[in-house]
Inverse folding.
């Protein structure tokens, strides 16, 4: 089936012109509509207190998204809990790690991140098993993240601080689209809530992530495009390969390398396998910040010196004029 109109259940990229979706739309003359299928609502401090979780009882925090970062610091502020300087932060990507700049100063905190997936972060965390981990998250019972943490046998406390709520999609007519692209179980729930007859419709479904696939399978909805795969690591590439008529590949299930085999570290070295190293995100950023501070301080000193010299010159001029 040739696609013309696709409904993508995510916000429009901040810079659409540089987004792979722009190239996709131009190359295949696609009409792409972006609209987030759900909204994130924060859990109140009153409700959170019922969990009897105290942020300061923990030595490390695991973030799985920017939402979790926002709501963690919001909750700490509402509870009037002062986060200790020694707190460590673990993020699946560098983008989320750098997002922490909105709340903390890098030079005072230790921040670690993986390469791309949450599974990469599990490998980073294995060197910090002695930490008491807090996992700010949504109120979903179990996710891919908690499954990975449980399988890796980490001692952590799940701390629901927000929930995802389906949005009203009645402004759209499903029959106006050839395909809908979904990225999460809550997106699937929103689709079913707004369009209960979706199974009977002719719209095709593209899905990203194993948890999204599982939600669609449970609902009995056929998946036409499943991602990520080896040659389609993103939804844009998956749609492109479908448009080019390429055969659907097996979906990638990313697992922590520490769980892929149970060999000892000695045997791993013998086979030449590489370990994921923890990265101290603040190092480069701290250097940049310090260089910027030094430059600004030097500029201020030069400005003050120039002002002082100007005033001294004026005073000298006045003294000369009065002497005459």
């Amino acid at each position: 089936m040739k696609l013309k109109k696709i409904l993508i259940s995510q916000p429009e990229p901040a810079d659409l012109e540089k987004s792979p979706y722009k190239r996709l739309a131009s190359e295949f003359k696609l009409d792409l509509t972006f609209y987030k299928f759900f909204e994130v609502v924060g859990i109140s401090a009153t409700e959170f207190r019922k969990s009897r979780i105290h942020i300061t009882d923990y030595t490390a925090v695991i973030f799985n998204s920017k939402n979790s970062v926002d709501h963690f610091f919001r909750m700490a502020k509402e509870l009037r809990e002062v986060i200790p300087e020694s707190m460590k932060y673990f993020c699946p990507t560098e983008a989320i790690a750098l997002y922490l700049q909105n709340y903390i100063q890098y030079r005072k905190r230790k921040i670690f991140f993986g390469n791309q997936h949450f599974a990469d972060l599990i490998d980073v965390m294995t060197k910090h098993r002695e930490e008491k981990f807090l996992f700010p998250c949504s109120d979903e019972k179990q996710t891919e993240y908690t499954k990975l943490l449980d399988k890796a046998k980490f001692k952590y406390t799940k701390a629901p601080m927000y929930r995802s709520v389906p949005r009203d999609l009645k402004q759209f007519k499903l029959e106006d689209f050839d395909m809908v692209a979904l990225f999460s179980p809550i997106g699937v729930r929103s689709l079913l809530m707004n369009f209960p007859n979706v199974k009977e419709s002719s719209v095709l479904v593209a899905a990203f992530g194993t948890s999204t696939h599982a939600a669609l399978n449970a609902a009995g909805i056929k998946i036409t495009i499943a991602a990520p795969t080896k040659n389609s690591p993103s939804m844009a590439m998956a749609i492109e390969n479908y448009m080019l008529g390429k055969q659907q590949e097996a979906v990638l299930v990313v697992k922590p390398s520490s769980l892929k085999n149970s060999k000892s570290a000695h045997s791993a070295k013998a086979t030449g396998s590489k370990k994921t190293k923890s990265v101290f995100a603040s190092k480069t950023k701290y250097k940049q910040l310090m260089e910027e501070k030094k430059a600004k301080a030097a500029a201020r000193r030069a400005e003050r010196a120039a002002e002082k010299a100007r005033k001294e010159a004026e005073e000298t001029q006045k003294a000369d004029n009065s002497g005459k």
